[in-house]
Amino acid sequence: MTIREFQKAIEAQYFKKDSSRGLGGTFLWFSEEIGELAEALRHGTDAEKRSEFADVLAWLSTLANMSGVDLEAAALEKYGKGCPRCLGTPCRCEEK
Ligand SMILES: [Zn+2]
Q1: What's the pLDDT score for residue 73?
Q2: Which of 55, 70, 71, 67 is nearest to 23 (CA)?
Q3: Eight-state DSSP code of residue 42
Q4: Do residues 72 and 10 make contact, with C-beta atoms less than 8 angstroms apart?
Q5: pLDDT digit string (tens) for the chain, length 96 residues
Q6: Domains in the chain: ranges and CATH
Q7: Which residues, at least 6 apart from 58, have a Cβ–Cβ distance to it below 8 Å?
Q8: How many angstroms separate the alpha carbon of residue 86 from the centre of ligand 1?
Q9: Res 79: pLDDT
Q10: CA distances from residue 53 to 1, 12, 41, 75 in whole angstroms, order as listed
Q11: Cα of 78 to ligand 1 centre, how many Å?
Q12: What is the DSSP letter of 69?
């Protein structure tokens, strides 16, 4: 499954519900999922980590659907040629 196919699947499953909640409410849900991912990364089992990564990706896809953004195209546009700043793979930018 590609990123685009995943985004389409999430749209088919949740777009009606998500639209009635609105962008602001959906962003709050997304933020909550980020917190749950942080918790899983610190203390979770491997299964819990996988579950929270999936949730974050699903909610990110929902936000993209509501905003008319194609996530796969956006990711490729920015990161498809390497680091957006130095164009390196791996990145050669200095940490500041
Ligand atoms: Zn770089």
Answers
A1: 98
A2: 67
A3: H
A4: no
A5: 999 999 999 999 999 888 899 999 999 999 999 999 999 999 999 999 999 999 999 999 999 999 999 999 999 999 999 999 999 999 999 987
A6: 3-79 (1.10.287.1080)
A7: 10, 14
A8: 4
A9: 96
A10: 16, 20, 10, 17
A11: 12
A12: -
Burial 38-74 (b: 16+ CB within 10 A, else e): eebeeebeeeeeeebeebbbbbbbbbbbbeeeebbee
Instruction: Locate 82 and state its tokens.
Output: 């390497």
pLDDT of residue 18: 87
User: How many A from CA of 91 to the centre of ligand 1?
Assistant: 4
The amino acid occupying position 67 is S
Which single residue is written with the structure tokens 């953004």?
69
Distance 93 CA to ligand 1 centre (A): 4
